[in-house]
Prior knowledge:
The structure holds two protein chains of two kinds.
Chain A: H1 2-10, H2 18-40, H3 46-64, H4 66-76, H5 81-130, H6 140-150
Chain B: E1 3-9, H1 16-26, E2 31-37, H2 43-49, E3 53-57, H3 63-76, E4 81-84, H4 93-104, E5 110-114, H5 118-123, H6 131-148, E6 160-163, H7 164-172, H8 179-189, E7 194-198, H9 213-230
Parallel strand pairs in B: 1-2, 1-4, 2-3, 5-7
Antiparallel strand pairs in B: 4-6, 5-6
Helix pairs in contact in B: 1-4, 3-7, 6-8, 6-9, 8-9
Amino acid sequence: MRxxxxxxxxxxxxxxxxxxxxxxxVIAIFFMLLILDLIRRDRLQERYSVIWFVAGLGxxxxxxxxxxxxxxxxxxxxxxxxxxxxxxxxxxxxxLALNFSVIMSKQAAQITRLAxxxxxxxxxxxxxxxxxxxxxxxxxGLQAEEQRLEG
Amino acid sequence: xxxxxxxxxxxxxxxxxxxIADVRKYLPEADIxxxxxxxxxxxxxxxxxxxxxVASLPFNQGLGxxxxxxxxxxxxxxxxxxxxxxSDGQHPAEEVARLLEVVTSGRADLVIGSRYHAGAVAATGDxxxxxxxxxxxxxxxxxxxxxxxxxxxxxxxxxxxxNRRVMTLFSQRYSPDFAEIESxxxxxxxxxxxxxxxxxxxxxxxxxxxxxxVKSAFFIFKGLVVLxxxxxxxxxxxxxx
Lengths: 151, 241
């Protein structure tokens, strides 16, 4: 058992080989180009792309300066840089997923309100027809406001 | 004094006309609005034929969104009071009229029709809940009473009457998932006077609302989370924009 522990201690920190660094850089550049293309074709809105660009740049920085990763690992008190890398990426993804849930909730609320407004407009049409074109009393203020906005 | 009675309905073409007729019989002065929650059947047509106003949501949004549509309509069209009841024929309009009397008298802002209230149980034995519903009911009853420090017996009742203060609040904030329970907590926390009145309810004509024990357990768990989160919400919200 003792020699196993010693072996683990004497093992050097995991270093990124130049092969993995080039691969990471290529993937990062390809990733950012993909983001640009998605924006260009209106498949992704700019405001949601910023976070992905930051991720791409982070990947590129990690590939260009592997010392950066070791610095971060040291600051985290993690001996193995790979573990540091994985935990950082995991945390970022977790934050991103939460961010999407927040955006989704907001949009769900907006869709609900939109559906309600549309349903209520239809009721107003029904009451208008029943009253031969006369607007119901409560709607006059709203209609005046709409005219003001249009004018 | 203008009153709106609204009826949330989802695929209730067989019963909605009867419910409308029942409301018209006991509340002849009230306007009737059916909120059709994206029904795939002829609910909207049946309701229109029966002479009700119909607000059709373009797709199914859940009970909370449907009820909120009713409160929004009542608020915007200057109704003084509103009430709602289920569209499946469980809720007699006669009882809804009694709830409305309590809000029009000014005794309470929001009145809930309770089928478990001592008076209701004594009056009739019409309503017999299933076992899982009984458990859910007692759990919610306990925690809602704890959260609001006010005694509630029927937390999931869909028969209610309200005044304009409640319309203002509910048209702004109404939980889509736990409409009945969270709205009670919200109303009490906003300082509104909420009162329960014993009512007579009828057995569901067909189907059951709770399917499996797992589903009811999940429903209860979700409800408890909603209640817990609700306790940390700000106590007062601003008046309508």
